[in-house]
């Protein structure tokens, strides 16, 4: 008997909250008309995803998710919104045609959802009884500096090339004044 | 069904990842601006990372291949780095497009349309 008999239920409640945050954020990111709200929805969804990583036994990745996605990606997208158009225009097609395309998109995504969920739930996985990794930063650090040192260095190269490319691309077409 | 062990079931994470993928694809089809499509792409990246982490946490590896138990976390870290690079490049392309066309709607960018 644990000293806090309801701690398990509190954990489940927190898990439900995290899942609801992820789903709600994704829905806001996809369905809202204003782009800035979609960015906020993406940030919310990433916050929920960080909680999910915590439940998946990896607090380091949870922190990295918050740091990179909310701190870097969402802020960069907000800068992009400020430098271009803030809003989506109203649809130019007729209302019936627009509804028809929305129905087609919903049908496609529901089919993909059903297919992927069915595949991953009915795949012949061999389930594990205990947690596989301890999720410690030490294990990740050792793996990054021994087994995965080449991809680790390559990703820094990719990031540097991406930064240089972004600078060059965004600089072109600017007036001299 | 026992709700108390819900965080320890891989099915929840799998369904959530499938939902994120479906939401991202819906956004890719429906969005009428390039930045909205970029946000939907980020959702698809998130779905892939969640699947990696779930399989790494719950499913057994092939015992004949020696591997690291933290390989899923490494993979997700690499996905995050690639997503950050992708966002930087895509946003600079979007800004360059906006300078040239005064619009970020994919419909307006139809110069090659016959």
Terminal-residue CA separation of chain A: 74 Å
How many distinct domains of chain B?
Answer: 1
The overall number of domains of chain A is 2
Q: What is the CATH architecture descriptor of the largest domain in chain A?
A: Up-down Bundle
- State the separation between the terminal residues of chain B, measured CA to CA: 58 Å
Largest interface: A-B, 91 and 80 residues
What fraction of the residues of chain A are assigned to beta strands by DSSP?
under 5%
Report the uncertain regions of chain A: none
The sequence of SSEs of chain A as H and E is: HHHHHH
Could you please describe the fold and organization of this structure?
The complex is a heterodimer of chains A (177) and B (114). Chain A has 177 residues and is mainly alpha-helical. Helix content of chain A is 74%, strand content 0%. Chain A folds into 2 domains: 1-89, NADH-ubiquinone/plastoquinone oxidoreductase chain 6, subunit NuoJ (Four Helix Bundle (Hemerythrin (Met), subunit A), Up-down Bundle); 133-177. Chain A has 6 helices and no strands. The termini of chain A are far apart. With 114 residues, chain B is mainly α. Chain B has a single domain (9-101), classed as Orthogonal Bundle (Helix Hairpins). Chain B contains 3 helices and no strands. The N and C termini of chain B lie far apart (58 Å). The chains are: A mainly alpha (177), B mainly alpha (114).
Could you give a short description of this structure?
The complex is a heterodimer of chains A (about 180) and B (about 110). Chain A has helices at about 5-30, 35-55, 60-85, 95-120, 135-145, 150-170. Chain A has about 180 residues and is an all-alpha fold.
């Amino acid at each position: 008997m644990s000293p806090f008999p309801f701690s398990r239920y509190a954990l489940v409640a927190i898990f439900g909250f995290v899942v609801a945050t992820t789903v709600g954020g994704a829905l806001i990111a996809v369905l809202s008309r204003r782009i800035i709200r979609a960015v906020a929805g993406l940030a919310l969804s990433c916050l929920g995803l960080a909680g999910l990583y915590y439940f998946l036994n990896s607090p380091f990745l949870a922190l990295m998710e918050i740091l990179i996605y909310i701190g870097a990606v969402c802020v960069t997208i907000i800068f992009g919104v400020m430098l271009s158009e803030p809003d989506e225009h109203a649809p130019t097609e007729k209302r019936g045609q627009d509804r028809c395309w929305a129905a087609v998109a919903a049908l496609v995504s529901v089919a993909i959802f059903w297919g992927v969920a069915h595949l991953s739930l009915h795949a012949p996985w061999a389930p594990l009884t205990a947690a596989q990794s301890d999720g410690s930063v030490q294990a990740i650090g050792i793996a990054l500096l021994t087994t995965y040192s080449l991809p680790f260095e390559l990703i820094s190269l990719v990031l540097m090339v991406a930064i240089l490319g972004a600078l060059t691309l965004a600089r072109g077409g600017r007036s001299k004044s | 069904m026992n709700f108390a062990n819900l965080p320890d079931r891989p099915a929840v994470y799998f369904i959530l990842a499938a939902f994120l993928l479906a939401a991202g694809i819906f956004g890719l089809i429906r969005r009428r601006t390039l930045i909205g499509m970029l946000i939907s792409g980020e959702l698809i990246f998130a779905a892939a990372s969640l699947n990696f982490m779930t399989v790494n946490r719950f499913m057994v590896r092939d015992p004949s291949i020696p591997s690291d138990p933290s390989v899923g976390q490494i993979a997700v870290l690499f996905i995050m780095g690639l997503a950050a690079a992708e966002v930087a490049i895509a946003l600079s392309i979007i800004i360059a497009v906006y300078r040239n066309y005064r619009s970020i709607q994919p419909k307006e960018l139809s110069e090659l349309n016959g």
